[in-house]
Design brief:
By secondary structure, this protein is mainly alpha-helical. The protein contains 26 helices and six strands. Strands 1-2-3 form a three-stranded antiparallel sheet. A three-stranded antiparallel sheet has the order 4-5-6. β4 and β5 form a beta hairpin. α5 packs antiparallel against α13, α10 packs antiparallel against α11 and α20 runs parallel beside α22. The two termini are about 20 Å apart. The N terminus and C terminus are likely disordered. The structure holds beta-D-glucopyranose. The site of beta-D-glucopyranose has 15 residues, from α11, α19, α23 and α24. Belongs to the major facilitator superfamily. Sugar transporter (TC 2.A.1.1) family.
């Protein structure tokens, strides 16, 4: 059965997206159209129910609804797995604070320290005072290591199961933390960071996929965002720890900050040992009986036959694919590949890590004293955690698209305000005395920007990639996402200080322009994925006005049945298996 109300523009004229999307005036109509209820989402307008003779009903609007509930077992497993996000978060939060501690700079980067002192004495250009490639290399070496590690992690995740990938991540991170805490020279420091990076590569590769596979479809968003929540908690803890250790008189506070990374590492390494593997992964590795038992346990019901046979079908299909890396390049995976690359790329181009890594440096630039700048970083950290809860409670109801579009708009508005406020005071010379009230105002808008990110691109940047790949390319696809994320994080970390020095306050407008691009991209190209079972996602792509053309009808299999779909919204039918 099919109900398909045509999309309409503001003027009420039916909108044919394939014909209209290149028209420039649409860009003007678009923001209003969202408000007035237009959606570039074919699933909402064409809610199709595909009935397979004698079989279940596949509703591409809402997805198949398998029996089962959210069991304590799943909830607990997901909480433990999500702690993998702590190591990533701790690391993001710790580097900015440590690199603004004078004893740390004096020991490892004396050149930067002297430049900073001089800038303070001369009241010279505030935009350029911390510009050192070696110092940024300390921050960003981790991301290069994570980039490479995620490719190895793909194999471990697929062959040995998700939990061993998490375990490997925790253990490597632990060694890195020890090396960093004991560092005597820059080499030890950077070597430690490389190990931390390998840990992050493994954890970020396996945790989001684990969560998305364990969760029942209708709660997948909520449970997956547990990962991002842990990332934000990690960042906040790191900020608080820096705040405390910066006060240590002996000048060794930075050692405590770096060594304490061992705590989150220990949590995920030990936690992973107790985690069950996902039914999807068990089936894929040939443990079919264990998988059945596990599925009963995680869904809290014996009525799992339907979901089980769909998982088996997905796994059998995935067995036909012997080279996930080569296969992911096939035309039929073009939509997933595009998002595996685009989502992390855009997530980083929101400019969030400028705030996360450099909040203390940035606030110092704004004229806060040492202590106040760490305090402001704590404030943004708190906003980051609390705003993440907004997405946890809304993501499976409102859907991914609405959060992306709202968050993008909010970030853009804040970037314009912050850029203008800083520009008005510092101008291009970078010399100014900023009154306290004024600086507080800037911090307020930075917080609103962080909140916008924390309920949109932050969590969705990990959730969406983890749920869109079919099983046969899931590990490979997730590696592409992780490595792209790390690559862009590396570039931004490395380029921020030189960019601040050259672009000055215009830097905020630079990232703002990217937010416009990514918001439009989501509006046109991202289908809604809420509530759709993970092994049925192909139906969503097939029904999309643009991506549908990349997927041949014979490539659409769900639960062993061939489903024939036409994305022009006219005919949808199913063939018997
Ligand atoms: C991003 C990080 C970012 C963090 C902030 C994550 O989703 O991948 O780069 O620092 O969110 O909360």
């Amino acid at each position: 059965s099919l109900t398909c109300a045509p999309l309409r523009t503001l003027l009420g004229e039916p909108l044919n997206l394939e014909r209209h999307w290149v028209r420039p005036e649409l860009l003007l109509v678009l923001p209003w159209s969202f408000v007035s209820g237009f959606r570039a989402d074919p699933l909402r307008c064409c809610s199709a129910a595909v009935t397979m003779a004698g079989g279940p009903v596949v509703n591409t609007g809402g997805g198949k609804d398998y029996p089962g509930k959210l069991t304590m077992f799943v909830l607990f497993a997901c909480i433990v797995a999500a702690t993998g996000g702590l190591i990533f978060g701790y690391d993001i939060g710790i580097s900015g604070g440590v690199t603004s501690m004078n004893p740390f700079l004096m020991k490892f980067f004396p050149g930067v320290y002297h430049k900073e002192q001089e800038a303070e004495r001369n009241q010279s250009n505030q935009y350029c005072k911390f510009d050192s490639q070696l110092l940024t290399m300390f921050t960003s070496s981790l991301y290069l290591a994570a980039l490479v590690a995620s490719f190895f992690a793909a194999t471990v995740t697929r062959v040995a199961g998700r939990k061993w990938s998490m375990f490997a991540g925790g253990v490597t991170f632990l060694v890195g933390a020890a090396l960093n805490g004991a560092a005597k020279n820059v080499l030890m420091l950077i070597l430690g960071r490389v190990l931390l990076g390998i840990g992050v590569g493994f954890a970020n590769q396996s945790v989001p996929v684990y969560l998305s596979e364990m969760a029942p479809a209708r709660l997948r968003g909520m449970l997956n965002i547990g990962f991002q929540l842990m990332v934000t908690i990690g960042i906040l803890c790191a900020n608080l720890i820096n705040y405390g250790t910066a006060k240590i008189k002996g000048g060794w506070g930075w050692r405590v900050s770096l060594a304490l990374a061992a705590v989150p590492a220990g949590i995920i390494a030990i936690g992973a040992l107790f985690l069950p593997d996902t039914p999807n992964s068990l089936i894929d590795r040939g443990y079919t009986e264990d998988a059945k038992k596990m599925l009963r346990r995680v869904r809290g019901t014996d009525d799992i036959e339907e979901e089980y046979s769909d998982l088996v079908a997905a796994s059998e299909e995935s067995k036909l694919v012997s080279h996930p890396w080569r296969n992911i390049l096939q035309r039929r995976y073009r939509p997933q590949l595009t998002f595996a690359i685009a989502i992390p790329f855009f997530q980083q181009l929101t400019g969030i890590n400028v705030i996360m890594f450099y909040a203390p440096v940035l606030f110092k630039t704004l004229g806060f004293a040492d202590d106040a700048s760490l305090m402001s970083a704590v404030i943004t950290g708190l906003v980051n955690v609390f705003a993440t809860f907004v997405s946890i409670v809304t993501v499976d109801r409102l859907g991914r698209r609405k959060l992306f579009l709202q968050g993008g708009t909010q970030m853009l508005a804040c970037q314009i305000v912050v850029g203008s406020l800083i520009g008005a005071k510092f101008g291009f010379t970078g010399v100014a005395d900023i009154p306290k009230g004024y600086a507080a105002f800037v911090v307020l808008f930075i917080c609103a920007y962080v909140a916008g990110f924390a309920w949109s691109w932050g969590p969705l940047g990990w959730l969406v990639p983890s749920e869109i790949f079919p099983l046969e390319i899931r590990s490979a696809g997730q590696s592409i996402t992780v490595s792209m994320n790390m690559l862009c994080t590396f570039i931004i970390a490395q380029a921020f200080l030189p960019m601040l020095c050259r672009f000055k306050f215009m830097l905020f407008f630079f990232f703002g322009a990217w937010v416009v691009v990514m918001t439009l991209f989501v509006a046109f190209f991202l289908p809604e994925t809420k509530n759709v079972p993970i092994e049925e996602m192909v139906l969503v792509w097939k029904a999309h006005w643009y991506w549908g053309r990349f997927i041949r009808d014979e490539d659409v299999h769900v639960g062993g049945a061939d489903v024939e779909m036409r994305s022009n919204g006219k005919v949808q039918a199913a063939k018997l298996p």
